[in-house]
Amino acid sequence: MIETKLPKVATTIFSVMSQLALQHKAVNLGQGFPDFEPPQGLRDALVQAMNEGRNQYAPMHGTAALREQIAIKTERLYGRKLDVDAGITVTSGATEAIFAAIAATVRAGEEVVVFDPAYDCYAPAIELQGARAVHIALTVPEFSIDWQRVRDVVTPKTRMILINSPHNPSGAVLSGADLEELAAIVRDTEIVVLSDEVYEHIVYEGSHESVLRHPELAERSIVVSSFGKTYHCTGWKVGYAVAPAALSAEFRKVHQYLTFCTFHPAQAAFADFMASNPEHYLELPAFYRAKRDRFRALLAPSRFKLLDVPGGYFQLVDYSAIRDEDDLSFSRWLVAAGGVAAIPLTPFYAQAPGTRLLRLCFAKNDATMEAAAQRLCRL
Q1: How many whole angstroms separate alpha carbon 71 and alpha carbon 81?
Q2: How far are the Cα atoms of 13, 59, 71, 131, 202 from residue 363, in angstroms, in the given order?
Q3: Which residues of the chain have pLDDT under 70?
Q4: How buried is 36 (Cβ within 10 angstroms: 0-12 exposed, 13-18 middle, 19+ buried)?
Q5: Phi-psi region for residue 309, left (φ > 0), alpha (ψ -120 to 50) or beta?
Q6: What pLDDT was estimated at residue 12?
Q7: CA–CA distance from 106 to each of 25, 41, 71, 250 (Å)?
Q8: What percent of the chain has pLDDT over 90?
Q9: Residue 77 · residue 274 · CB < 8 Å
Q10: Looking at residue 300, what is its pLDDT?
């Protein structure tokens, strides 16, 4: 028998809850995917790219046209001019980019600081390098970072600090002051920052404080984003990583042996659509704000307590007025008895937090939200 390299890893909670949703014919607000289609112009561009013969390998680091559009967007939003050839790598989804970033920079015996609740792909990627994830719990209910705790855990073994803003699952966003705290901690060290910014365009108040806005942090960071989240096409699995040339070179050494390159027709389609429809990502906050507010209004009569949602497309709800049991048990009861699939927060933690919180996805059409809310309000 083979000895597992990931003894604590089983089937992801997203797959488990989606399967239960199918089994019980429940409304699935668990897995974070839209149930509406990508823009028609983007789909048309994809078909056109295939019909024009863009069906073979793309360049390893991404097509020139798409990297150029990423650079234009980054300078437009964050004021940072990127090296199109050496600073941008297109990947097969953000998850691949996160894994490649960790594998390229973290060595056996080193440590990576992560903040719980943390997306479930972080710790396995760290452990597969023979490194250790150092978990710091965010302060509930605002899900903020206690920067003194970060200072307390940083040692000469600390190789990376992994941040996520807007945060999944809470929707919390980092401020400019947070980035200043982070910069002070990593200054004069060899620590690399990995910034997961896949929900960068879904911030409801003010603008997204990307690491790329902060010149000092940008020079030591790998920033990851996702076309799937921005353009409602998570199944296409296209993301990208932005980093200084030296970090990009190491990143690409891993990327080329993970996937080598990414779905060529989609890269051509994104490049064309970004050039002709640059307003799409600028309109995303208003688009999702309307969905957030609609969903919260539908749930207002329920016994769930709704937490604030500064960013992202997830609503955290406190179910303690309904049942007094752990979130894993409540989630299974909810999908079977209530007809709605949600995601419990415990799988996002190294140690069960004892909270009574669930994550619900509102990246759904009105009919889905209404059907789910009707069932949730009956509880």
Answers
A1: 7
A2: 19, 32, 27, 35, 11
A3: none
A4: exposed
A5: beta
A6: 87
A7: 43, 40, 27, 11
A8: 93
A9: no
A10: 98
- 191: alpha, beta or left, given left = phi > 0 and alpha = psi -120 to 50? beta
**CA separation (Å) from 188 to 156, 183, 218?**
12, 10, 15
Which amino acid, 92? Answer: S
What pLDDT, in 10s, does the model give residues 207-227?
A: 999 999 999 999 999 999 999
8-state DSSP, 37: P
- pLDDT attached to residue 237: 97
Residue with tokens 């080598």, as numbered in its chain: 260
Domains of the chain: 13-38+280-376 (3.90.1150.10), 40-276 (3.40.640.10)
Rounded Cα distance, 284 and 281, in Å: 5
Strand partners of residue 357? 318
Q: What's the pTM value of the predicted model, to 2 decimals?
A: 0.96
Q: Check whether the bond before 278 is cis (ω within 30° of 0).
A: no
